[in-house]
Amino acid sequence: MTMSMALTRLYLDKATLIWNGNVVTGLDALANFFEMLPSSEFQVNMLDCQPVHGKIRVFQEQATPSQTTVLVVTSGIVKFDGNKQHYFNQNFLLSAHSTLNNTVWKIASDCFRFQDWASS
Amino acid sequence: MTHDIEMGSNLRNCMAASLHIHEENMPKMKSEGELDKVKGLEPEEMCEDRNPLCTNLPDKSTNIKEDHEAPLPIIFGIEAYKKLPVCKVRSHQVNSLQRRARCWGIFQRRYVSWSETFSPGIHPSSRREQDGDVAMRDAHVGPGVRYTPYAIPTYWRRDSFHRGDQTHGNPERERKPPEEGLEGNRQDGTSRSWFKVTFPFGIKYDEKWLLNLIQSQCSVPFNPIEFHYEKMQVQFFGENASIAFVLKKVSGKIWDEENERISIFVSPSAVPHSEQKKLKSTKVKLIKKTNIKGYEVPQRALDLQRLHSDPDPMTLDIEMGPNLRNCMAASLHIHEENMCKVKSEGELDNVKGLQPEERCSDRNPLCTTFPDKSTNIRSILELFPKLLHLDDHKIPPPIIFGNEAYKKLPVCKGNVFGSETLKNIILQFLQQYYWIYDSGDWQGLLDAYHDEACFSLTILFNPDDLVPSCLHKYSKGSRNMRKLKDPVLRVQLLKHTKRDIVDFLNVLPKTQHDLSSFVVDMCVQTEKMLCFSVNGVFKEGECLLCIVNDQLFVRDAGPIETQGAFSTPVPTLSSSSVPTISQEQQEVAQAFSTQSGMNH
To answer: Can you name a GO cellular component term (chain B) (predicted)?
Structure first.
């Protein structure tokens, strides 16, 4: 299994990634997107998180119980192969999904942007 | 833009705002160590600078309902693997947040460069690695890279960029001591060629049977080091690049007696413990020079034959060019008898530590252990993918095809609103919010927040740094959990309820936001909730700060909340319109002006 496949599995089926203004929705599109990205090294310098009010139901079409949601924001430096390094900001909405035995968190929304995206 | 700022009744309240402030003029990110530019990641590119690709896929709307329940224990990662760390969420997220930081640190792109499958540090949850979710956990592997056979593995290129990360005490990196790990070797340029081979389900194979199987695949003698069973796996080490090469190739293409595929993981490794004592550590540092005793050593070429065929002791000043730097995976076998004296800055006399695996029959001591030349060259190119000359022969550029084709970053684009309607709503909201925010009318902001709203602020430099004094006021309230470990402070700095939020905002310096600099990414849109990020610039006094990152959640206000909200008329920003107001309105405006201190 490739790493892009593993990364994709962290997302909900209908999760959306907004990557420097590019909108990528759904696991297939996400897998393709990650596969096409050059390899990278990330350094996370900032991390903050907040609970999102109560539970919200994210990307559920059927009448399922709503999910606990957490907002996570990060910032730091990333270097993609063949490109100069960038400061980046990235925000996640994580949604909890409970089974009988445990609870798993998955990404409902992912928003990534270079701080200097305009000159990239 | 000039929009009348009248907040629609369906867009008041509840925001979980997370402000992130960076200093605009901060040229470098300072960590506890010194973080310079990313060294080592400057390979000699065979191809031109990349032109971005473009992807554009539509997003989808969702339905959201709110509910209120106690938070549940968190298991980060994917379902099946039971060994994942458990992060527990409580109302005061203390240790769980710290552990979550550990978990998030994992969430970085890591690819194993030597194999198309995971390194042994990451364990698949089931035998069928292709199916099911994959567990991510703290792995001892370094930040590997995507499998790109024609690129230098970046874990060989660890540098100050990474040292900065390491000195943060980044727990998920779990760096090994230099004598065990690879860092010291990389920085020294020492050549290390050990590999670790893992059979993930090797427990079911007899040792002799397995070794015979491996030997049958290899044309050269195979000598496993520290062969052992570990849980479900078989692990051993090897020093022969050709063996590693072969094993990597045959992974998944050989079958056991039950007709099941055998997977093999191959990854670079530190020197095994049993070998460390035998191996002499050596630093071979080659310094750049074009003429070396009559030799002309092109920057991109490493003439292995010439290096050691010269019977005279010579001083080699060959800098490993960017394409050869950190190619520590090279398997250089130097015949001891023919070893020349190589001098480096460290005044080393001999190339030590590069123990030959076997004697070469010919006089050329530098060779891989493949029997034929073409395989020999191919294996060298696998290890030195950017080599352009080998033994005075020009090598054609590598052919890149398939999924590992030339990868380019997508084009960076502007705002993402989702629709024109949402764009108008969001822009109006932002205009109004920041107008109130910049005016210092903190009472006005109260109406913008939900009763139970959350707010937090982070700033990315230390108070001791030489920064404008205005920024120190932000650092007091900074809730960067990468650095802030005090659990009490972590709770205190997460502002809760609109009263607390506005009181906190009140102590921050007066600002002026530049709406024209704003970039909006609308992440989630439902019938009752909007989630969007805002990046932009604001000014505080004489300080020009950069990049405000606001993450706002806006939810529909209930009828009770809407009553009485925004009873004070908000002036429009439209400079072209001159509204006519009644006498009564004039008096109200005058009173407002007096109270707020504004002149108009």
So the answer is: cytoplasm
Residue A91 has pLDDT above 90, yes or no: yes
Provide the mean pLDDT of chain B. Answer: 59
What residue of B is the nearest CA neighbor of A34?
Answer: B109
Q: Which two tokens stand for residue B101?
A: 């930081």
pTM above 0.95, yes or no: no
Question: A100 vs B531, which has greater pLDDT?
Answer: B531
CB within 8 Å: A93 and B57:
no
Q: Which two tokens stand for residue B596?
A: 């707020």
Q: Report how far residue B433's alpha carbon sits from residue B430's, in angstroms, rounded to the nearest whole number.
A: 5
- In this complex, the residue of A47, A61, A117 whose CB is nearest that of residue B412 is A117
| A104 interfaces chain B, CB cutoff of 8 Å | yes
Given this model, what pLDDT does residue B142 score? Answer: 40
Interface predicted TM-score (ipTM): 0.91
Q: Which fold has domain A3-119?
A: Nuclear Transport Factor 2; Chain: A, (3.10.450)
Interface of A with B in 13-72 (CB under 8 A): 14, 16, 18-26, 29, 33-61, 65-66, 68, 71-72
CATH 2.40.400.10 is the classification of domain B420-566? no
Give the pLDDT band (50/70/90) at residue A93: very high
Phi, psi for A69 (deg, rounded to 5): -130, 140
| pLDDT above 70 as % of chain A | 86
A37, A24 contact by CB (below 8 A): no
With CA atoms as reference, report the closest residue to B511 among B478, B536, B528.
B536
- Considering the domain B195-272, what is its CATH architecture? 2-Layer Sandwich (3.30)
* Mean pLDDT of the A39-50 span: 93
Interface test with B, best of A45, A94, A117 (most B CBs within 10 A): A45
Cα gap A82→B45, rounded to integer Å: 8
Strands B265-268 and B291-292: unpaired
C-beta separation of B113 from B153 below 8 A: yes
Low-confidence spans in chain B with pLDDT less than 70:
1-192, 277-373, 375-406, 461-472, 541-600
In chain B, where does the domain assigned CATH 3.30.70.330 lie? 195-272
What are the residue ranges spanned by the domains of chain A?
Answer: 3-119
Query: Hey, of B32, B526, B549, which one would you mutate to test binding to chain A, going by the most A CBs within 10 A of its CB?
Result: B549
- Chain A residues in contact with B482 by the CB 8 A cut-off are 44-47
Closest CA to B333 of B301, B380, B289, B297: B380
Q: What pLDDT does residue B13 have?
A: 35
Interface residue A83 vs chain B (CB under 8 A): yes
The answer on pLDDT for A67 being more than 50 is yes
What's the pLDDT score for residue B58? Answer: 43
B79–A44: do the CB atoms touch at under 8 Å?
no
Using the beta-carbon criterion (under 8 Å), do B57 and A24 form an inter-chain contact?
yes
In whole angstroms, what is the distance from residue B244 CA to residue B267 CA? 8
